[in-house]
Amino acid sequence: MEILSSVDLVKKYGFKFTKSLGQNFLTDDSVLDAIVEGAEVDKDDFVIEIGPGVGVLTCRLINKAKSVCAIELDDKLIPILEQELGSCENFELIHGDALKVNFKEIIGDEQSVKVVANLPYYVTTPIISRFLTEGYNFKSLTIMIQKEVAERINGVPRTKAYGALSVFAQYYCDTSIVKRVPAGCFIPQPKVDSIVIKLDKLEKPKVEVDDEKFFFKVVKQAFQMRRKTLWNCMKVLGLEKERLIEAFEEANIDMKRRGETLSIEEFATLANCIYKKTKL
Ligand code: SAM
């Protein structure tokens, strides 16, 4: 199966872009190939694509995967996708909103599910959050997103990029940067550069925590006031001073450190020690 380039398809159908839908179509073949390669799509895979646009990435996925299910919101793109790709037996198109569709139903009993997408930027965080927290059976997300967000997801301690989003993503997944993509690779050109990032879902979260909600509360608190010591950040959790001191001692973490220096393992230890004190 072959398809024209985005530029030619846009011309062929006289397609008019809708800015509010984050429509920046990929024009660079090497980037499209890198996404499919980075996602390691093969003949056993059921691929979910969010936002197929005029279908340039979709076509490559159809050629590699067992089957592809693409979810597109824009009414204007549905007839184009049906015309260009509708004859492929391993392709299903859902006209809907990826923020609302029932992924459990879409995935059904598929065993090797990979999500691949050049995401409209406004859905990045909710889509990642849906896949990481709603318990779907999937192996990986390979997604093109805004550069700064990708760097935060992939951030490591003691760097500016490291924050609550890094800990959140890396609690559930191994993360890696697949490719940096300049704004010139899209029509129309976005204002920012992008990165293709891969999130490989872990079989179980990276660290054991007594209470997930409390763990993320501690992490959020630690980064809410980045320049403050952990002591100042954790004080506001409302634990008695003596108990909080004991928790830091038991966790063997210096309360004068800043949150941005803690690894995920250290965050888990600290959160568990504080949590135990709240239960006394
Ligand atoms: N995959 C194409 C490519 O790489 O050239 C298009 C990517 S473009 C960045 C994002 C696509 O997502 C557009 O086709 C847009 O209409 C679609 N889209 C926007 N919001 C959506 C939503 N909530 N659910 C599904 N698709 C959406």
From TrEMBL:
Domain Ribosomal RNA adenine methylase transferase N-terminal per the UniProt entry, residue ranges: 31-203
The protein's Enzyme Commission number: 2.1.1.182
Presence of the UniProt keyword Membrane in the record: no
SUPFAM superfamilies: S-adenosyl-L-methionine-dependent methyltransferases (SSF53335)
GO molecular function: 16S rRNA (adenine(1518)-N(6)/adenine(1519)-N(6))-dimethyltransferase activity; RNA binding
Superkingdom, taxonomy of origin: Bacteria
Bilayer-crossing regions: none
Keywords, in A-Z order: Cytoplasm, Methyltransferase, RNA-binding, rRNA processing, S-adenosyl-L-methionine, Transferase
Catalytic activity: adenosine(1518)/adenosine(1519) in 16S rRNA + 4 S-adenosyl-L-methionine = N(6)-dimethyladenosine(1518)/N(6)-dimethyladenosine(1519) in 16S rRNA + 4 S-adenosyl-L-homocysteine + 4 H(+)
Enzyme class: transferase
Pfam families: RrnaAD
Subcellular location: Cytoplasm
InterPro entries in the cross-refs: KsgA/Erm, rRNA_Ade_diMease-like_C, rRNA_Ade_Mease_Trfase_CS, rRNA_Ade_methylase_Trfase_N, rRNA_adenine_dimethylase, SAM-dependent_MTases_sf
Listed GO CC annotations: cytosol
Binding site for S-adenosyl-L-methionine: N24, L26, G51, E72, D97, N118
Family designation: Belongs to the class I-like SAM-binding methyltransferase superfamily. rRNA adenine N(6)-methyltransferase family. RsmA subfamily.
PANTHER family attached to this UniProt entry: DIMETHYLADENOSINE TRANSFERASE (PTHR11727), DIMETHYLADENOSINE TRANSFERASE-RELATED (PTHR11727:SF7)
Function text: Specifically dimethylates two adjacent adenosines (A1518 and A1519) in the loop of a conserved hairpin near the 3'-end of 16S rRNA in the 30S particle. May play a critical role in biogenesis of 30S subunits.
Listed name of the protein: Ribosomal RNA small subunit methyltransferase A
Biological source species: Oceanirhabdus seepicola
